[in-house]
Amino acid sequence: AICASRCDKKFFLWVCHRADFSPNYFIAEDVEKEDITELKDTVEDGIAELKRGIASIVAMDLGRRMEKLESHVAELDRRVQSGISIASASGSASASPSRGPLAAAAAEVEEVRQEMEATLAPSNLYQEDSLQSLEWAAQHQPR
After folding, report:
1. In a domain, 8, yes or no
2. Per the domain annotation, does 30 fall within a domain?
3. Residue 61 lies in a domain
4. Counted domains in the chain
5. Dihedral angle, C-alpha 49, 53, 58, 62, nearest 10 °
6. Biased-composition ranges for Low complexity (predicted)?
7. Which domain holds residue 127?
8. Around Cβ 61, how many Cβ atoms within 10 Å?
9. Per-residue pLDDT averaged across 121-129, rounded?
């Protein structure tokens, strides 16, 4: 308001909304229109290809982390089962569960469960080590 009172000239902005508006109306030469359209198509295609590449890298990284967790859980399950069979064979089934290999295996199972929850948390699903993921994707890219 203060600046407006100091200005001698008044400025107005006139805006017209047209349903049939196209930026091509304001390009003078047809060659320029074709170049701009071609460039726009090329950029859109490149962006779409990058999005597909990023999505595949994210999916591969998540799959790799899940495979590591599954193998770790399978190993722990095998150790727990062998501990149970040893405990039942030695007749110590009534022994305190806070001692021996079963307690250690149970602690590891709990640790893996927490690791799986952390890995599958929504905030971590798309988190990745970009260098390793890109190298892995380059090695496993279909030819």
Report:
1. no
2. no
3. yes
4. 1
5. 130
6. 87-107
7. 41-139
8. 21
9. 58
Q: How many residues appear in the chain?
A: 143
Inside any domain, residue 116: yes
CB 65 within 8 A of CB 119: yes
The answer, yes or no, to whether residue 36 has pLDDT greater than 60, is yes
Encoded tokens for 129: 């080590």
pLDDT at 129 over 70: no
Give me the mean pLDDT over the 52-57 stretch. Answer: 86
Closest CA to 72 of 104, 118, 32, 108: 108
pLDDT at residue 93, rounded to an integer? 46
> What pLDDT, on a 0 to 100 scale, did the predictor assign at position 125?
55
pLDDT above 90 coverage of the chain, percent: 6
From residue 71, give the alpha-carbon distance in Å to each of 64, 101, 119. Answer: 11, 20, 15
CA dist 101 and 106 (Å) reads: 8
Distance, C-alpha 65 to centroid of its chain:
12
